[in-house]
Amino acid sequence: MFTKSTLGEQTTPAALALTDVSKGVSAVSFGDLDLDANQVGGDVSWTPPASEAGIVTYETYLATDAAGSARVLAGGVAVGTNEYAVSSDADGTGKSHIVEYMKYVLVEQATPAALAQTDKSLSVSGVSSGELDLDALQIGGGLSSRVPALGSLGEHPR
After folding, report:
1. What structural domains and CATH numbers belong to the chain?
2. Which helix (H) or strand (E) holds 8?
3. 74 near 101, Cβ under 8 Å?
4. Are the C-beta atoms of residues 101 and 17 closer than 8 Å to each other?
5. Rounded to whole angstroms, how far apart are CA atoms 104 and 51?
6. Which of 39, 35, 36 lies closest to 90 in space, CA to CA?
7. What beta strand segments (E) does 10-141 contain?
8. What is the pLDDT of residue 157?
9. In a 3-state reduction of DSSP, which class is residue 89?
10. β-pairing, 8-9 with 4-5?
11. Which helix (DSSP H) or strand (DSSP E) does residue 2 occupy?
């Protein structure tokens, strides 16, 4: 950096060495525990970078791709917390990825850590009732249904 005046320009500049540091979270994991279609919910966890210097919060988003396109904020947590609970019934329509950003005092990380996620859904079918109560506004008797196998969800990390 040089200084300049009407008399001339400084001949010996002041210098500062710049170092570009790249850091990010890793090992992002998520298990969708909300069984409704187009809704997600469950814990997102990650491994923080070796140094958390300068990081203020971790921000969790639902997005349409690994780059964080069309992202919607699910929420954030302070440094020192490496897990965020996405509330059940969060709208996951069209959102195929969980992306995790680090937020600094002045700026948010440009490239997130990403995890492809699949919306898990199950529903009960074939519900029937053998109504045995003959009084108005009362019900009685057995209820039957077909419940899908939980194995169709796959394994959850928790």
Report:
1. 26-116 (2.60.40.10)
2. strand 8-9
3. no
4. no
5. 13
6. 39
7. 26-30, 39-47, 55-63, 72-78, 83-91, 97-104, 113-116, 125-129
8. 42
9. strand
10. antiparallel
11. none
User: What digits encode the pLDDT tens for the residues 75-96?
Assistant: 999 999 999 999 888 888 889 9
Rounded distance between C-alpha atoms, residue 103 and residue 126, angstroms: 48
Closest CA to 96 of 79, 76, 110, 117: 117
Q: Which of 126, 102, 127, 118 is nearest to 152 (CA)?
A: 118
Encoded tokens for 41? 């919910």
* Pair of tokens at residue 114: 């990403």
Ranges of the chain with pLDDT below 70: 1-2, 5, 10, 19-21, 122-128, 130-133, 141, 143-158
Instruction: Give the residue carrying structure tokens 């506004």.
Output: 137
- Judged by phi (left if over 0) then psi (alpha if -120 to 50, else beta), residue 56 lies in alpha
Supply 110's token pair. Answer: 């440009």
Nearest-CA neighbor of 25 among 81, 72, 63, 75? 81
